[in-house]
Amino acid sequence: MTRAEEFEELRPLLFSIAYRLLGSVTEAEDAVQETWLRFESSRTRHRSAKAFLSAVVTRISIDVLRSARFRREEYVGQWLPEPLLTDPYEDPARSAELADSVSVAALLLLERLSPLERAVFVLREVFGFGFPEVASAVGRSEAACRQLAVRARRHMDAGRPRFEADRGERDELAARFFDALREGDVEGLRELLAADVRLVGDGGGKVPQLARSIVGADNTARLLSMSFAALARVGVEWEPREVNGHPGAIVRDRDHKVLTTWTLDVADGRIRTIRSVSNPDKLAHVGPVADAWAITRAAKRVRRAAG
């Protein structure tokens, strides 16, 4: 097997590691490309290409993550990860860990960890690397990595909901939610939302948003129903699909360009959080991006005409 073939075989794993560390499709792809350049230029024949490449992409991602933290402190509004439609790495033996770790909620919990804790958790708990491999990847002793893993697990476990929905329940609830949204059924929406549901939007200060943050079933149901009634009249439609391993949707304009993506967090039989990403910089990998300002102006004209 050539070096290029070895790399291509491992590319899905490398991207999946980098995305979980960075929460960015674009930055993860850049990290993988830089990993290839280092692999290609290396004169050493590595005993394990997987161990070497995983270590390289991890170190690159840690460096990017450290600089990204400063950028995120200056970010306008709520920062959310870039939406991921498909995780390219598949491992049936770790399918549960892989699916859970790519959710928006899990990625936001990972944001609370230090870069080293995050790297150790992802390599050890998500991808099942042994501590010798983890230690080599992050440049720390095995004992130090074990301590980092314990701290990271404690933080992650403390932030998870106590009762998560199974996949069937999530999908059924999401289908009812989008049906109610399509029909403008405020009461139907309200029944599906937790009393303290949060609607959170990430526009990065670059596009108009429904709201940066709304709390409460009544407020959220009314806002969604009113807003999407107007948007539907100007050709906006939503395509229910899995986003970051959870029920969600891609919202598109009449030309099929991407306006925003949604993810729904479900627990205790209700939708607890609705997160939308409309920052155009985070949507380019999903498809051609819509003109959010033009759509908002058109929707406002429709509301004025109806009122």
UniProtKB/TrEMBL annotation:
Gene3D superfamilies xref list: 1.10.1740.10, 3.10.450.50, Winged helix-like DNA-binding domain superfamily/Winged helix DNA-binding domain (1.10.10.10)
Claim: Secreted is one of the keywords in the record: no
Domain of life according to the entry: Bacteria
Residues covered by the RNA polymerase sigma factor 70 region 4 type domain: 106-156
Domain RNA polymerase sigma-70 region, residue spans: 7-69
Record's keyword annotation contains Transcription regulation: yes
Domain SnoaL-like as annotated: residue spans: 175-271
InterPro entries in alphabetical order: ECF_Sigma-70_Domain, NTF2-like_dom_sf, RNA_pol_sigma-70_dom, RNA_pol_sigma-70_ECF, RNA_pol_sigma70_r2, RNA_pol_sigma70_r4_t2, RNA_pol_sigma_r2, RNA_pol_sigma_r3/r4-like
Key words of the record: Sigma factor, Transcription, Transcription regulation
Transmembrane segments: none
PANTHER family from the UniProt entry: ECF RNA POLYMERASE SIGMA FACTOR SIGJ, SIGMA 19 FACTOR
Quaternary state and interactors: Interacts transiently with the RNA polymerase catalytic core formed by RpoA, RpoB, RpoC and RpoZ (2 alpha, 1 beta, 1 beta' and 1 omega subunit) to form the RNA polymerase holoenzyme that can initiate transcription.
Family: Belongs to the sigma-70 factor family. ECF subfamily.
Protein's UniProt name: RNA polymerase sigma-70 factor
